[in-house]
């Protein structure tokens, strides 16, 4: 018995087997746990990767849309009107350009180039494009089962991105009377026109750009970026060229001004509902606009017969829009426009007015043939008044004759250029055609609109904003945007005529008798607007006559083909104080002038709830509607 008990006490095989079983179970549990953790980690890693890739795909879609815009400014009119993002904003489109990225349902997505697992779609809101130059786009990216969306605001790299933009830094030879050759300052061209320099008293508070290179005095102050053909600003004198508080000059690509602004007149047509959903106003011949400071303006336009038009595609005939009452409510009644009192109307709501030359084609509703508006019995149109190169006229003086809108003013001397040291006739041949598409503008502006003309925009007085936060104005002159600064002559020379005796020679003015008609020394002017001139310049009429004036303050932006002189160095004209309107970085005056080509940059961007599910169907709100 003792031997049996002793063997049982020494036999541990049962306990060892139990320990093995317990240890094996624990190991199996550990292995299973590790496999589960590893598997879930792999799934999470794949999900994270898809999540990141979905946003990368959205960014790729945004870049794709920006590229298409940059290659074709008209691409803002392409999109899918059935897209929820577009439909809810009231956007209108020509078509979808067969672009798969405009797909709004089904399994079709545009692939990201170079990727096998990333796709995108985009939807466009162009409802603010004509009004503010801004496009909104919702882009959705997909990778695996992850879908993410973002909304971005896009705005073109236009002229209004700069306080000051020029194509050439020299003046227009046609205005200066010079026989120089128009060329860039960086070009090696014989006899090229000299640069107009920034003076020592000039301060530029904003970014400036030229396709040329700037020239400035040592004390010129640049408080914004300076962008030009190369990195060297030319010194006007000495070894320095100003204070560059916004950093040194940088080289940038060419930015082209369109040669003409006539395409802006298309915005007054009522027969293009897709491309022109909100037609503006057409005015004909010399037109005056006086802003009244209360959201209203008075418009005088004696030649205007139809302020909204339609064009026959076959014959080219231009006729009045079908809804005359609607046109009159927006643009003013024709009878009022032709009257001495003018038409007092609201400033055009987020829209454009275009002032055209009186047309000669007989099939144009605004043509007059051999007839004239009432009150035009004593104008350049009805009186043979010839202003020659030296300022002389065929009648005794020329003040009684005008363009039907009061220009030239009584007592104004029409200038034709300097003749010699004894006599002079002013800075340029500066007449006012009675049938030209010129517009004369002044007053306190409230609203959002653009004024464009086929001729010259004349700034006849201060133009200010009632609300610097909400009001925005554009001024676009084909030939020029010009500060009205008339001259006068108080001393004419006399000449002896045989058999008559001494007579007054009104073809010339004694040098001592030339002065300014309605401005005295120190007088200043303010212009709040985005300014552009396609083929001309922004300048001060008679900049080289009279005393030294005060400050020409521009709050907005300036774009021009040539530099426009506003003063001579230290003796006549205005000092510049150009201040950039920072709002123009994210918005624009309605239907403003666009560059020949441009790139579109993102002004704001934010991620939003996904617009689509992974299967391509629209993502739904809690109420069951598509987002």
The global form is globular
How would a crystallographer describe the biggest sheet?
A: 14 strands, parallel
Helix content: 10-25%
N- to C-terminal distance:
89 Å
In round numbers, the mean pLDDT is 85
Low-confidence segments:
1-5, 387-399, 425-430
Give me the Rg, rounded: 35 Å
Structural class: alpha/beta
Strand content: 25-35%
Q: Number of helical segments?
A: 7
Number of strands: 36
Concise account of the structure shown:
The protein is of the alpha/beta class.
Notes on the protein architecture:
This protein is of the alpha/beta class and 627 residues long. 15% of the residues lie in helices and 28% in strands. The strands form 8 sheets. Strands 5, 6, 7, 9, 10, 12, 13, 14, 20, 23, 25, 32, 34 and 35 form a 14-stranded parallel sheet that branches. The chain starts with a helix and ends in a 19-residue tail after the last strand. The relative contact order is 0.13.
């Amino acid at each position: 018995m003792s031997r049996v008990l002793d063997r049982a006490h020494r036999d541990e095989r049962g306990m060892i087997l139990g320990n093995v079983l317990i240890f094996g179970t624990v190991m199996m549990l550990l292995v299973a746990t590790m496999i589960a953790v590893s598997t879930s980690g792999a799934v999470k890693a794949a999900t994270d990767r898809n999540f990141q890739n979905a946003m990368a795909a959205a960014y790729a879609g945004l870049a794709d849309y920006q590229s298409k815009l940059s290659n074709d400014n008209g691409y803002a009119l392409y999109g899918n009107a059935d897209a929820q993002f577009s439909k809810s904003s009231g956007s209108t489109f020509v078509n979808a350009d067969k672009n798969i990225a405009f797909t709004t349902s089904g399994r079709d997505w545009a692939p990201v180039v170079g990727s096998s697992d990333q796709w995108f779609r985009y939807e466009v809101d162009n409802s603010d494009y004509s009004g503010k130059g801004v496009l909104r786009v919702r882009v959705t990216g997909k990778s695996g089962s992850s879908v993410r969306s973002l909304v971005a605001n896009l705005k073109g790299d236009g002229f209004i991105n700069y306080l000051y933009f020029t194509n050439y830094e020299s003046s227009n030879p046609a205005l200066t009377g010079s026989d120089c050759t128009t060329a860039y300052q960086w070009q090696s061209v014989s006899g090229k026109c000299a640069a107009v320099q920034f003076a020592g008293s000039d301060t530029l508070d904003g970014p400036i750009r030229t396709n040329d290179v700037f020239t400035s005095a040592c004390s010129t102050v640049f408080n914004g970026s300076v962008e030009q053909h190369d990195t060297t600003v030319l010194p006007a004198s000495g070894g320095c060229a100003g204070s560059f508080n916004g950093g040194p000059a940088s080289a940038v690509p060419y930015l082209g001004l369109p040669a003409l602004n006539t395409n802006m007149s298309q915005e007054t047509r009522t027969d293009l509902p897709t491309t022109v959903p909100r037609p503006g106003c057409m005015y004909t011949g010399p037109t005056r606009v006086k802003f009244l400071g209360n959201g209203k303006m008075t418009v005088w336009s004696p030649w205007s017969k139809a302020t909204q038009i339609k064009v026959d595609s076959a014959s080219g005939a231009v006729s009045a829009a079908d809804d005359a009452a609607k046109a009159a409510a927006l643009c003013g009644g024709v009878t009022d426009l032709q009257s001495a009192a003018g038409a007092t109307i609201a400033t055009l709501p987020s829209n454009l007015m275009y002032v055209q030359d009186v047309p000669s084609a007989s099939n144009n509703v605004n043509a007059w043939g051999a007839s004239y508006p009432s009150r035009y019995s004593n104008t350049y149109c009805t009186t043979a008044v010839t202003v020659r190169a030296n300022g002389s006229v065929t009648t005794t003086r020329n003040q009684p004759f005008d363009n039907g809108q009061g220009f030239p003013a009584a007592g104004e001397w029409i200038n034709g250029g300097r003749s010699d040291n004894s006599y002079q006739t002013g800075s340029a041949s500066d007449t006012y055609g009675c049938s030209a598409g010129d517009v004369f503008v002044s007053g306190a502006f409230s609203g959002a609109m653009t004024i464009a003309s086929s001729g010259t925009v004349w700034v006849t007085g201060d133009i200010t904003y009632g609300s610097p936060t909400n009001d925005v104005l554009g001024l676009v002159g084909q030939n020029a945007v010009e500060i009205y600064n008339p001259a006068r002559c108080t001393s004419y020379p006399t000449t002896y005529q045989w058999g008559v005796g001494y007579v007054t020679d009104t073809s010339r003015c004694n040098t001592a008798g030339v002065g300014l008609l309605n401005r005295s020394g120190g007088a200043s002017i303010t212009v709040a607007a985005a300014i552009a001139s396609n083929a001309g310049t922004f300048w001060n009429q008679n900049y080289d006559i009279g005393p030294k004036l005060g400050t020409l303050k521009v709050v907005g932006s300036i774009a021009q083909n040539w530099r426009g002189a506003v003063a001579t160095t230290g003796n006549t004209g205005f000092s510049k104080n150009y201040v950039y309107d920072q709002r123009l970085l994210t918005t624009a005056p309605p239907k403003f002038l666009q560059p020949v080509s441009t790139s579109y940059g993102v002004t704001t961007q934010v991620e939003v709830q996904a617009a689509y599910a992974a299967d391509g169907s629209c993502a739904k709100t809690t109420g069951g509607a598509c987002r």
